[in-house]
From TrEMBL:
Gene Ontology molecular function, alphabetical: oxidoreductase activity, acting on paired donors, with oxidation of a pair of donors resulting in the reduction of molecular oxygen to two molecules of water
Keyword field: Fatty acid biosynthesis, Fatty acid metabolism, Iron, Lipid biosynthesis, Lipid metabolism, Membrane, Oxidoreductase, Transmembrane, Transmembrane helix
Family affiliation: Belongs to the fatty acid desaturase type 1 family.
Subcellular location(s) per record: Membrane
First-listed, main subcellular location of the protein, grouped into a coarse class: membrane
Protein name (Swiss-Prot/TrEMBL): Fatty acid desaturase domain-containing protein
GO terms for biological process, alphabetical: unsaturated fatty acid biosynthetic process
Record pathway: Lipid metabolism; polyunsaturated fatty acid biosynthesis
Occurrences of domain Fatty acid desaturase (ranges): 188-285
UniProt remark on domains: The histidine box domains are involved in binding the catalytic metal ions.
């Protein structure tokens, strides 16, 4: 029996932090290890026998006092870390916390303000926001530059991120020609959000506000978080990446393709996450459509040689 270890990032896959993959970051949620019967497995970098009660974390031996295996997974939690107490809070974190708690409180009012139009609005907004603004725009277009869009379309999709209560995607844009637009959006983010809330309220009263902002945002937040929690614990691995990333089909359905997370960690530049024909990736179909009508260009995909290099077997 052997343990392979690494740390799991507690940030959203759509967050710019993920690009840095800083092992010394203060924000790792837990210390995890692989439980594997085969010490020569290619799944990790370091192997240490359990009897020694140490695991290697980025090359540094760490004493293991207790551990437990996550159900239906080969991932072992070595040390639990409190995301609240063991993190260095800054004003940005606090603002985010207020926003997240706020939308959760708002969504609690949902049963008291239910009507079918508000419910349909919530479904459409969740789909559009997750599919286009977050997954296609923030993640694949802005964070990883997996493809290019004409400026007007890139800005339009990115603006939708405001509706998702998220402006983090803009921080990935470094090029000087586009930075002023994103800086403007970032600074005026709260104003746009307030205007959007007012518009929803004027169109459909409290039901639109509660379902269009509260429930839709909570649904979007939690499906996004699944990628970074579930997809590092449950699922299958096809590529030799030095992390816990997994391909998980049901998360891929909920997140319109982001659940093929082992594929994504292996080829972060790829516009396509569902690399097999049967791996449903709705965001990729959208990108292909944009490419077919001449709007998406320079669409990046892994080559056969790159796949061969990363394959587990
Ligand atoms: Zn990513
Ligand atoms: Zn990940």
């Amino acid at each position: 029996m052997a343990y392979l270890s690494t740390t799991l990032k507690a940030v959203s896959p759509f967050s710019p932090l993920v690009k840095k993959h800083n092992p010394n970051s203060n924000n790792n949620s837990a210390l995890l290890a692989y439980h594997t019967p085969n010490p020569t497995s290619k799944q990790g970098r370091s192997v240490i026998h359990k009897e020694q009660m140490f695991v290697a974390v980025h090359g540094v031996p760490v004493l293991v006092e207790s551990s437990w295996r996550l159900p239906m997974s080969d991932v072992v939690v070595v040390r639990k870390k409190s995301a609240f107490l063991e993190r260095s809070w800054n004003s940005r974190d606090v603002r985010k916390l207020v926003r997240v708690v706020g939308v959760h409180l708002l969504s609690l009012l949902a049963p008291f303000h239910f009507n079918w139009s508000a419910f349909k609005l919530c479904l459409w907004l969740s789909l559009l926001i997750i599919g286009i603004c977050i997954t296609l725009s923030y993640h694949r277009n802005l964070s990883h530059r997996s493809f290019n869009l004409p400026k007007w379309l890139e800005y339009l999709f990115a603006y939708g991120g405001v509706l998702a209560f998220q402006c983090g995607g803009y921080e990935n844009v470094n090029d000087l020609a586009r930075a002023p637009f994103y800086r403007f959006l970032h600074r005026t983010f709260v104003l746009h959000l307030m205007a959007y809330a007012l518009l929803l309220y004027l169109c459909g009263g409290m039901p639109f506000l509660v379902w269009g902002i509260g429930v839709a945002t909570v649904a979007r937040l939690h499906t996004t978080f699944l990628v970074n929690s579930v997809c590092h614990i449950w699922g299958t691995r096809a590529w030799n990446t030095p992390d816990f990333s997994r391909n998980n089909w049901w998360v891929a359905i909920l997140t319109l393709g982001e659940g093929w997370h082992n594929n994504h960690h292996a080829f972060q530049f790829s516009a396509r996450h569902g690399l097999e024909w049967w791996q449903l990736d709705v965001t990729w179909y959208l990108i292909r459509f944009l490419e077919a009508i001449g709007l998406a260009t320079n669409v990046k995909l892994p080559t056969e040689a790159q796949k061969k290099r990363m394959a587990l077997i």
